[in-house]
Specification:
This protein is an all-alpha fold. The chain is about 95% helix and about 0% strand.
């Protein structure tokens, strides 16, 4: 009995809601369908434009990554050249420092001998 009255209540409530919706609609069915069709066309146009923009962004991203790769390779090459040039520039100073360190070690050994 309870299930039957619940089902009847749903059916009657649905009918009343449908009738009240039809009676309180702000426009006729033809006008509503026309507005819906216009909105669908507008949304489709927006989706097409959005797709075009995504394609432009994708193309720009691809171009930027290619250019970035070239720039990174050029930068790394410049850094390698700078490091090699720096090594070549400091080599004479490095050798001179090694000679001076050897001289200091020899002097320390001589002082140790003299102290003993």
């Amino acid at each position: 009995m309870k299930a039957k009255s619940l089902l009847i209540g749903f059916i009657i409530g649905g009918a009343v809601a449908g009738i009240s919706t039809l009676l309180s609609a702000p426009a006729s069915g033809r006008d509503s369908r026309k507005k819906i069709k216009e909105k669908i066309e507008c949304i489709q146009n927006q989706l097409i434009e959005l797709n075009r923009k995504f394609i432009r962004v994708k193309d720009a991203t691809i171009l930027a990554s290619k250019e970035g790769k070239k720039e990174i390779l050029a930068f790394s090459s410049d850094v390698k050249q700078s490091i090699n040039q720096w090594k070549a520039d400091i080599l004479p100073h490095q050798q001179e420092l090694q000679k001076e360190l050897q001289a200091i070690e020899i002097a320390i050994h001589e002082l140790e001998k003299n102290i003993k």
